[in-house]
Amino acid sequence: MQRSFTILYTSLLGVCLGSSSSFPSNINIGGLFPTESHEYEVFRFALSHHQDIPKLVPQVDMVKMGNSFSMTYAFCSQFSKGVYAIIGLYDRKTVNMLMSFCGALHVCFVTPSFPIETANQFVIQLRPELQDALVGVIDHYGWTKFVYMYSSDSGLSVLQKVLDTAAERNWLVTSVNVETMTEASFLKVFQDLDKRKEGQIIIDCETERLTGILKKIVEQGKNAKSYHYILANLGFLDIDLTDLRKGGANITGFQLVNNSEPSVSRVVQQWMEFDNKDSKMPKSGLKYTGALTYDGVKVMSTAFQNLRRQRIDISRRGNAGECLANPPAPWGQGIDIQRALQQVRIDGLTGHIQFNEKGRRTNYTVSVMELAPSGPKKVGYWNEDEKYVTTASFMRGSNDTYGLQNRTYIVTTILESPYVMLKKNHDQLVGNDKYEGYIVELAAEIAKHVGYQYKLKIVSDGKYGARDPETKMWNGMKADVAVAPLTITLVREEVIDFSKPFMSLGISIMIKKPTKSKPGVFSFLDPLAYEIWMCIVFAYIGVSVVLFLVSRFSPYEWHAEDYEEGGEPQSPSQATASNGCAAGPDTSAAEHQPAES
After folding, report:
1. Cα dihedral angle (484, 485, 488, 489), rounded to 10 degrees?
2. How far apart are CA 371 and CA 378, in angstroms?
């Protein structure tokens, strides 16, 4: 009996050990990344942090984004090598192809790219959806009219949500595709906004394209205080907003990575110290897309550890096949990996990570940021339960002089007596001491009252500022503040924020109110000038004389009239008849001779 129990125990132990040992110790995972991308470098960094068993072994192919043929070849190559799952990026031109392959072959694709509407459960989307948070922020600011600038790669799904909400709430939304926008059309959009006195704009683009758009905004001088931009991007701290802050524009955005968390800051510090000798890219901070990639590796590592703990056999012995087979042969263990990935519940660099049955992020929190004078500030957050919640201690406009004390502002002006003049001994002086005049004293008093440092700078081209009709660019004064005897015109007021005039010249236009008077005899001559009436009279006389002369010399204009003695003048017809008889005296005499005889 004891021997039988020993044999049974040994057999069960062998089965358990056999099941555990059947799980592979190395898990081949595929990677599809653009050449020299930030996400690929973070992917390598994340693999070095996740060396637990089962160990993730990368099979990476560098692909060209936008080339569906290159993406298809790389995907099929990795599938034939027997990878268990793939992590990588896609764009608008390759996303449908990847969705089709993943659904047909049951291969899980973990991606930090923009979220899409799909029923494919084998696509695990790491990036949270932003449309609900964006609508919440729009509601918070009370916008009813705004421009929505979007990119076709990532902005269509968010735009659709905004347009649906706009139809329900009677918002007026002007959508502009930045991919087809030229320099002229970009300028026209802002010119129309200036004419309508509107400056509320939403920009929904990837970080690289967004950086270029913000640069154009600064070049066109559209970073003034009258503009309010909402950046529909989850990496607010990844964007350089220094130039925008100088103009005083209102900037609102979203931040997914909470850098104030100790666990996050520790990983960021390790990333900056990570020695990647093979990388040709300059070292940069950890962007939010890189943080999503790091979390993607962590999700995959956790999922395979759970599968190993549950002793689920996912071995691909003989399962490596051809992805272009007809009909397609799906991988049998793919559904187990998909289920394990969706069931992961962890805290990563991007907050709480959890997926719904469609593979999309759920139960996440997004921070709402604003650009304060001293730098980015968190003003609230959004989640699915509480929606938008305001937590800001900083409120724009509460203290307009906040942050001015730590900067030296460039105050541009122009030499014109008596406002700004050079002192006689200006060669021996430096800085603001070289100048004197009304504006010099005014600028000094303003700086003394507000409490900031400034430096006077004479405009380089000596012009007040005018717009080039061809390039639509402005010349003249370029600085933080301009103090000059500058006339306020309608064209300048469309692009510049003027203060109240510090001097009024008293020039005005006086119009005398007309007094009523009775019309005179010759009042009918008033509509035309005296010279015109004289020309009409002389023209009448001249034409009459010409007609008289023509009639005088024409033989058809004269009639001879004979008068009988003691009788009445003949009628014109009779005169014509007698004239006719007189015209031929010889013939008449011949005709009447027989009668006389």
Report:
1. -100
2. 9
Which CATH number among 3.20.20.150, 3.40.50.2300, 3.30.70.3400, 3.40.50.300 corresponds to the domain 2-126+262-361?
Answer: 3.40.50.2300
What's the angle, vertex CA 340, arms to CA 339 and CA 343, rounded to 5? 85
Report the CATH fold assignment for 408-493. Answer: D-Maltodextrin-Binding Protein; domain 2 (3.40.190)
- What is the distance between the alpha carbons of residues 522 and 418, in angstroms, rounded to a whole number? 56
Cα–Cα distance for residue pair 244/250, rounded to 1 Å? 9
Beta bridge partners, 361, equal: 355
Could you give the CA distance from residue 328 to residue 226 in angstroms, rounded to a whole number? 58
- Would the pTM count as exceeding 0.70? no
* Phi-psi category of residue 363: left, alpha or beta, with phi > 0 → left and psi -120 to 50 → alpha: left
Instruction: Decide if 455 contacts 444 (C-beta within 8 A).
Output: no
> 288 and 296 in contact (C-beta within 8 Å)?
no
Nearest to 36 by CA among 71, 63, 69, 57: 63
Q: With both helix axes pointing from N to C terminus, report the angle between 68-80 and 95-105 in degrees, rounded to the nearest 10.
A: 20
Cα atoms in the Cβ-side hemisphere of radius 13 Å centred on 245: 17
What is the torsional sign of CA 542, 548, 553, 557?
positive
Given CATH 3.40.190.10, say whether it is the number of domain 131-255+373-390: no
Q: DSSP letters of 283-322?
A: P----HHHHHHHHHHHHHHHHHHHHHHTT-----TTT---
> CA 162, CA 165: separation in Å to the nearest integer?
5
> Strand 408-413 relative to strand 481-482: parallel, antiparallel, unpaired?
parallel
User: Fold identical between 131-255+373-390 and 408-493?
Assistant: no
Helix then strand then coil, in percent of the chain rounded to 5, is 40, 20, 40
pLDDT 10s per residue in the chain (597 long)? 444 444 444 444 444 444 444 667 788 899 999 988 899 999 999 998 887 778 888 889 999 888 888 899 999 888 888 889 999 999 888 888 889 989 888 899 999 999 888 888 899 999 999 989 999 999 999 999 999 988 877 657 788 888 999 999 999 998 888 887 777 778 788 878 777 777 899 999 888 888 888 888 888 878 877 889 999 999 999 998 888 877 778 899 999 999 888 999 999 998 888 876 666 666 778 999 999 999 999 999 999 989 888 888 777 655 556 777 777 777 878 888 999 999 999 999 999 999 998 899 999 999 999 988 778 899 999 998 888 888 865 555 444 444 455 567 778 888 888 888 888 888 888 888 888 888 888 888 888 887 778 888 887 766 666 666 666 666 655 656 778 777 777 767 666 667 777 777 666 677 777 777 777 777 888 888 889 999 999 999 999 999 999 888 888 777 665 555 555 555 444 444 444 444 444 444 444 444 443
Domain ranges of the chain: 2-126+262-361, 131-255+373-390, 408-493, 523-556
Q: 161: which 2 tokens?
A: 């949500």
Rounded Cα gap, residues 361 and 227, in angstroms: 33
Whole-angstrom distance, CA of residue 582 vs CA of residue 584:
5
173 Cβ contact list (under 8 Å, min separation 6): 145, 146, 147, 148, 162, 163, 166
